[in-house]
Write a structure and sequence with these properties.
Two copies of one chain form a homodimer. Chain A has twelve helices and ten strands. The first copy, chain A, has three domains: 75 residues, Arc Repressor Mutant, subunit A, CATH 1.10.10; 152 residues, GAF domain (Beta-Lactamase, 2-Layer Sandwich); 94 residues, Heat-inducible transcription repressor hrca homolog, domain 3 (Enolase-like, domain 1, 2-Layer Sandwich), CATH 3.30.390. In chain A, strands 7-3-10-9-8 form a five-stranded antiparallel beta sheet, with helices on both faces. Chain A starts with a helix and ends with a helix. With 338 residues, the first copy, chain A, is an alpha+beta fold. Helix content of chain A is 47%, strand content 17%. Chains A and B meet through strand 4, strand 5, strand 6 and helix 10 of A and strand 4, strand 5, strand 6 and helix 10 of B. The structure holds a DNA duplex (30 and 30 nucleotides). Chains A, B: Keywords: Repressor, Stress response, Transcription, Transcription regulation. Chains A, B: GO terms for molecular function: DNA binding.
DNA sequence: GTTGGCACTCCCTGCCGAAGAGTGCCAGGA
DNA sequence: TCCTGGCACTCTTCGGCAGGGAGTGCCAAC
């Protein structure tokens, strides 16, 4: 078990390294932190921390750098989440309040997050699978062509063109529209299929084909569009850690272009609190030198989507976690208000 | 006036430099290109080209590199647009054919373009200002709350929530919906305002407030959303020219995050053909060492939006122009089919 | 107008030595 | 048992310097 002071030394190393971006030595450490012991003592502690795998030396006779394991300990036991200042909170609120629609909310969120954390921000669109149906609309585009519009409680809108097997009259259309809405309004997506299964039966035989087509398109939309969309921003922040540049940044940019990878990254976030994945804890190869800080957000108690940031393992964890948590909270409020 | 052979030398320099990414000398040039003259002669030609400002030396006793002016001459007079191979064309067609809706079309296009050109791709969503109204839908969400849905001929859907000054009955709603559609269906956006100006007058006094609110929201949407959205992709391709890395790539990434800058870039593209902006021809500071190849695309004869790629001035212009043109053409077809 | 020859310039690489930062270990003291 | 000062050692970094290579510019000859 590590003594209290050794933990303190680790904390100091992490803080200094995050600040200076350079390996930190024993002398500098005693000068900048009020450790009450001499550099020699710190050296002993550092040797112990190194034996345990919490820190490492880039080369003999260089200072120490935290390992992934060291950051993990730091995040779990040595650091809290730094709350944002009142000014920052006001800025978030003001910025998000200006949004006009869902796209705008997500767009603003990603910019805000990138700016606050000075890192790459990733925001997932509110997932359809956990949202509820607010309204289904059917429009006639041509005698045998309809447009299906699906509106969710999070403000998301999906539309599909439906080619009907036979012409479908306006009155039947209004009828179908009304019945559909009365059945599935307010329902969650997974609950929809059984509720509409018998709808074709209540129509005239010659209309059943069209009704079935409409329904299967609707169900397809519900399933397909559970495929989750993402927005990312702030990639230019990657250039801030410019040292081992091309080698580090390339795979990260590539990983960020793959939705699948990102979704899995965010997917690991739990509903309840801020999740941090450090370095090699990220399975994807290109991201082993980055950390991901993510959290769920939603209009109510339950998370409907996730958001987070991706940055170097050498990041300001307390500040980043604070910013991510705060942004998620405000976005949730905004969604709830609409 | 430059002699035929000097133009040939310039073309050879551009081609070699694009291929090798290194300054090209007289000897290598005579070896790799069938110039029929000796290195010494080429040196004379190079000196002349340098006097005219078409090429430059990074330093004394290095090879020559094309200047922006050199690339310009190359693009304008020395190179054509390289058509894509049949296999490439098939690949484009297949890839785009799989798209399910407008978002998907744009998403696929940006990925395709990035992959084909191995550069950063930018695709503008079909602009609302040149599209026509296909349908307007009004839904009642609550007694005094409506949702306005606007569907365009390019398949784009915009929605807005409207808070009404007074409750609005279902029959009035249907009435308003019908009148709106009969007036503006198929109209271009700029033509809409005069067509609906007198609509409130034909309603009962207590309903006029709501009708006006709906109309102003509609007009706002038409104007606001002429604010054009963009999708970009393939930023990891920026890492391919890894030499003067952090300095070059940083401002480019920053520029790419600013919609305004990108819109202006694409906006310079003419409707008719592929436009190329080389190096300093781009006004934005961060993009002076990049070239932009862009073109308009649309479902008919007229361009409804632009797309293009951003890459180093040292790029394969004929191939890039060919790819951009081909992709634009196929996207236009896809849009026309829907 | 073209060509071969030749001197010159400049970059790149590797090598060397000095300086600096940081460590590990040891012996002495509380 | 733990802390401390001292000291030798290691390793990186940086400037200076020489050698090799690539490419040019110019000149005289064809």
């Amino acid at each position: 078990m590590l003594s209290e002071r050794r933990l303190e030394v680790l904390r100091a190393i992490v803080q200094d390294y995050v600040g200076t971006e350079e390996p930190v030595g024993s002398k500098a450490l005693t000068e900048r932190h009020n450790l009450q012991v001499s550099p020699a003592t710190v050296r002993n502690d550092m040797a112990a921390l190194e034996d345990e795998g919490y820190i490492a030396q880039p080369h003999t006779s260089a200072g120490r750098v935290p390992t992934d394991k060291g950051y993990r300990l730091f995040v779990d036991r040595l650091a809290g989440v730094r709350p944002l200042s009142a000014a920052e909170r006001r800025a978030i609120q003001n910025f998000l309040d200006g949004a006009v629609d869902l796209d705008d909310v997500v767009g603003r969120t990603v910019r805000l997050l990138a700016q606050l954390t000075r890192q790459v921000a990733v925001v997932q669109y509110p997932s359809l699978s956990r949202s509820t149906v607010r309204h289904v609309e059917l429009l006639s585009l041509a005698p045998a062509r309809l447009m299906l519009v699906l509106i969710t409680d999070t403000g998301r809108v999906e539309q599909r063109v439906v080619d009907c097997p036979a012409p479908f009259g306006e009155t039947s259309l209004a009828d179908l529209r009304a019945r559909l809405n009365s059945r599935i309004d307010g329902q969650r997506f997974p609950e929809v299929p059984p509720l509409v299964a018998d709808l074709p039966d209540s129509f005239e035989p010659e209309e059943r084909g069209t009704v079935s087509t409409v329904l299967s398109t609707l169900l397809e939309t519900l399933v397909e569009e559970t495929e989750e969309r993402l927005l990312i921003g702030g990639t230019s922040n990657l250039t801030r850690f410019a040292q081992d540049f091309p080698l580090t940044i390339r795979p990260v940019l590539e990983a960020l272009e793959e939705q699948v990878v990102l979704l899995r990254l965010l997917g690991e976030a739990t509903d309840t609190g801020v999740t941090v994945r450090i370095g090699h804890e990220n399975v994807h190869e290109g991201l082993t030198s980055t950390s991901v800080v993510s959290v769920g957000y939603g209009s109510g108690d339950e998370a409907v989507a996730k958001l987070g940031v991706v940055g170097p393992t050498r990041m300001d964890y307390p500040g980043t976690m604070g910013a991510v948590r705060a942004v998620a909270r405000y976005v949730g409020q905004i969604l709830a208000e609409n």
